[in-house]
Fold these 4 entries.
Entry 1:
Amino acid sequence: MQYDPIKKSLGNFFNKTPFLRKVFYRILNVLLLRAWHIYKHIRRWSKDKKNLPIHILDAGSGFGQYTYTLSKMSDLWQITAVDVKIEQIHDCNLFFQKIGKGDRVKFYVEDLVTYQRPHAYDAILSIDVMEHILEDEVVFRNFGTSLKKHGVLFISTPSDQGGSDVHHEGDNSFIEEHVRDGYSKEEITQKLLKAGFSKVEVKYSYGKYGSLSWRLSMKYPISWIGKSRWFFVVLPFYYLVIFPVCLVLNWIDVKRENSRGTGLIVLAYK
């Protein structure tokens, strides 16, 4: 199934007005469990930084939902967001200009394999990006070079325990754009240490409850839309029933220490 065209269709619909785009961001932040985990760690990290001139890189910014949330956390923070998709970068720049944040939030077309800005950033976000990039060790080195001393890298990426919905040898990835099905804790830790990071923390996300939430809120609806766009008509009624259930499942996943999981949340310190 082609996942990217469906994402593009959804983005085009919600891009019609700034209000709809904000609604889209809110939906993504609530439905996507990885956002719950990442914001949990960002809130902890930022407790003593709200009044500081922090510079953050959103590396692989996509629709810009993480950049938007970060931009609301402090008026002093400068955010640079990069992605390889020209159309999304254009749309994001236009949106942030319309809502009056264009002076401190900038989007650029860049390839993470070649992009680095020595000692420029206090923090870097890489949310569901590394599974799309074959030259991951090069990108990790670029992140290390681009971080200031004591800077932190936040990563969300599939694990090797069913990430990309691959559970057995021979399975096809649910998201066909992935170049790897997932990392083990040991592999991503060693690659980041090799890239020059001094400390790496890795935890599982999308455990038993989170994986169920993902299937109910994302996999099944997207699969239905892939078969027929008429399922768009049914989706609002489906989510009325399933949305509260997924909220509870996401909350449980964030609160508990998962011994296994199809996702990884990584914090790497310079």
Note: The radius of gyration is 18 Å.
Entry 2:
Amino acid sequence: MIQTEILCQSPIFRGISPEELSELFNQIHFQVKTYQKSDLITIGGEICDRLLIIQQGSVKAEMTDYSGKTIKIEDMSAPWPLATAFLFGKENRFPVTVSATSDVEMVSIPKPEFVKLLQLNALILNNYLNTISTRAQFLSQKLKFLSFKTIKQKIAHYLLEKAGDRLQTVEVQQSQGQLAEMFGVTRPSLARALGEMCQEGLIETDRRFIKILDKNRMNLLLKG
């Protein structure tokens, strides 16, 4: 069963009331699919011919590089849409493999039915355009991050992005294990790189807080 109270909080349907959204969904064909924890939802490379929106639960998106190493791209939870930037275009394929990290309900809207929604409501069209622009910017930043070859470069980029121009100290919400998964490295390798950066006078660590001691040297590290 569709839960419009949740879906109207999605970036695709933001600004639309649950009642109005229910009326719109009555005019299209869609499915609500259920998945158990660890189930595969999409496989990277398969045709993206439907808009998927998480109605309940959470998922993770991963990508495998040419060496076979799996890198986590991001975690997503309800009511986030999947692969919005890849629904249209010549190579409209899912860019990542998505699997459930909890029990999941997923609303699946076939591409022609979603086009009908866009034609029925201008706010949905505007929301969708904003969403794909935001996703394109996110993916651009992610590709830049993945282009760094060393763990230290990835750490430096991550910290400098979070710190911006004003902050010197960054609070890291993720555990070392989660950071290692995000960077596509092992936890011991990440811990070793952090330790070396401390010894080199680049950073200081205090539990979840990391202080950047020399932003200029950190930026030079990125230039490799």
Note: The chain has a mean pLDDT of 89.
Entry 3:
Amino acid sequence: MDRAIALQLVKKQLTEHRYVHTLGVMESSLRLAAQYGADLKKAELAAIFHDYAKFRPKEEMKQVVIDESLPLDLLDFGNELLHAPVGSILVKREAGIHDKEILSAIYYHTTGNGRMSQLEKIVFLADYIEPNRQFPGVEEVRDAAERNLNEACLLAVKNTVQFLMKQNQKIYPLTIETYNGLQEEIRRKK
């Protein structure tokens, strides 16, 4: 799919603020993909569509979880997690994107998973470090992204877990699996 068409489809689904964020994620994904030798087109499309379902009605997202047999525990961790896996379903259904790697990068861009692909890591990290993000710890993760993809993703997960703990929020099990998987991958490569 052409970039202009993809952006046009996504823009209809997002607020102006979230569209600007999406452009930042696209820019960051392309930079990371070029740096780490990933498929530029897949990184671009996954980034453009990563928040496709962000503003869908909560009840619609919950129904997609049920209808598509997504993990039901998603419903126990707040609505913020739903847009990623639901988005992967809706992007396939409504935008006609069937590439499994792109859909998987959309699915896991908020939680990660214990065995992340390179593309999943790139979109996960790009969403965290895009230029419009400003919060404690983001600069450290941006710096790490220049040196090592795995270590930057691990630092982003650590920051996310610490933030959730400070907010007394539950941590989705896949996020813990992401932490453990990245730790193991980093250890193996040393």
Note: The mean pLDDT is 96.
Entry 4:
Amino acid sequence: MNLLIFKLAATPLLVLTATRLQRRYGGTIGGLFTGLPVTSAPLSLFLALENGAGFAARAAVGTLLGLTAMGGFCAAYARSARRAHWGTALVLGAAASAALFVVLSKLPQRPLLAAALTFPALLALVLLIGRAHPGVAPPHPWWDLPARVGFALAAVLGITAAAAHLGPTWSGMLATLPILSAIMGGFTHRHAGAEAARALLRGIVVGALGAGAFNLIVALDVVRRGITPAYASAAAAALIVAWGSHALLERVQGASAPH
């Protein structure tokens, strides 16, 4: 019950915050915030408190692997958005993500193996999406923000009901389902255009590098060091890796962009 209450409270707050950041500072910053483990980190902590450190460690490996599937959604959507309708891009992104989820769920659940696959994959997906150049966004209709929140809540409730019957691997992987990526990307594409959606989705994948650092530390340390020090270290690593990756990629891709 505590976990459900948290999700119901956190989901609207996350959507509202990410949308405000996107509209004020641009899609890259809004996406970066969305990609951080702002909901999966507290959910992981709940798993540790309710099911034990061992369960949380195994779930963190699943989440770490699942980040690649989430990034696959973002890349497939971003690449198809320039030529496809937003609905078609959603379908293509969902298909790519589902295929990756199936493959990744069959891999050995080992933290270092998951990290060796996830971090290079996320970096490659950021480069595949490329830098976007969104123009000035038109005014959003009044119903845009309530609709984003409503769709996000409905999806979270459905996944919560399913996760109650699953073990640690799928509980962890379900935490990375690209719900917010799909909602934020689809609404942005529809109202602000493909380039704005690409900027947002690229930011999400960059933020996911921070989420990867968080889950790797939880997977390796929560049993050995205990819940409090492991989660504190993981949260700090998430922020450092996400912001450092953002700064580095902006410099590298900015320098290589044609002038």
Note: The CA atoms of residues 32 and 206 lie 6 Å apart.
